[in-house]
Amino acid sequence: MVVSQFLVLAAALFAMGVYGLLIRRNIVLILLSVELMLNAVNINLVAFESMIVTTEALGQVFAIFVITVAAAEVGVGLAIVLMIFRNRQSANVDELDLMRY
Question: At what angle do helices 27-51 and 3-23 cross, to 10 degrees?
């Protein structure tokens, strides 16, 4: 396959992630949108590394680091979401400003 096809796929995934980040009000769906954006970055890393073939496979290594950071982000993010849901009985982003009081 041609690299441009992977770049178009990554751009579409990133655009869906940005759309979900801006439109959604539920915290879990916002985290899911961030994960979509990180997956688009991973596709770009691997696609560009396939263009510039090296013996170190730097694109794949960076993609693995991004996956690791994304897994840690999901763990911490879901823990925060659960604590907010226990305190407020809602996972709506608009109601988070009430936690200041």
Answer: 160
